[in-house]
Structures are given as structure tokens and as C-alpha cells.
Amino acid sequence: MTEHDNTSLAPLIEALIAEQRQTNQLLMMLIEALADEGGPDDDAPPTHYMDGSPIG
């Protein structure tokens, strides 16, 4: 590759990095939101069978 080829790739690489940063920020926000929800108690007995039918 020549120096001209390298300089023409620089804006594309910078754009890819910017998009990756945005994706990482969105993923981090999603992870934090899911963590804040506080899902069901893992120690609680199950209320449904795996096929979706209720127990009992």
C-alpha cells in the first residue's frame, strides 16, 4: 500500500471506531438497565413447568 492508500482509509477506520463506541455505550446501558430490574428470586421455588404450564 502507498501512503495515499493509508490516508484514504483513515476516515473509514475513524468512523468504524466511533460506531463501535456508540454500540458499546448502548450495550452498557442495556446491561445496567437489566441489572437494575432485579429479576425473580433465584432461591424461590418454580411456579411453572418448562412447557409454560403452571405448577399445582
Describe this structure in words.
- The protein is mostly helical.
- It is 62% helix and 0% strand.
- The protein has one helix and no strands.
- The longest helix is centred in the middle third of the chain and has 35 residues.
- The termini are far apart.
- The model has no long low-confidence stretch (mean pLDDT 86).
Quick structural gist:
Residues 36-56 are annotated as: Disordered. The chain is mainly alpha-helical and 56 residues long.
- Count, helices: 1
Measured by DSSP, the beta-strand proportion falls in under 5%
Radius of gyration: 23 Å
> What is the H/E string?
H
Classify the secondary structure makeup into a structural class: mainly alpha
Q: What is the CA-CA span between the terminal residues? A: 70 Å
Flag low-confidence runs: none
Give the helix level as a range of percent: 55-70%
Inertia-based shape? rod-shaped
Largest sheet: none
Per DSSP E runs of 2 or more residues, the count of β-strands stands at 0
| Average pLDDT for all residues | 86
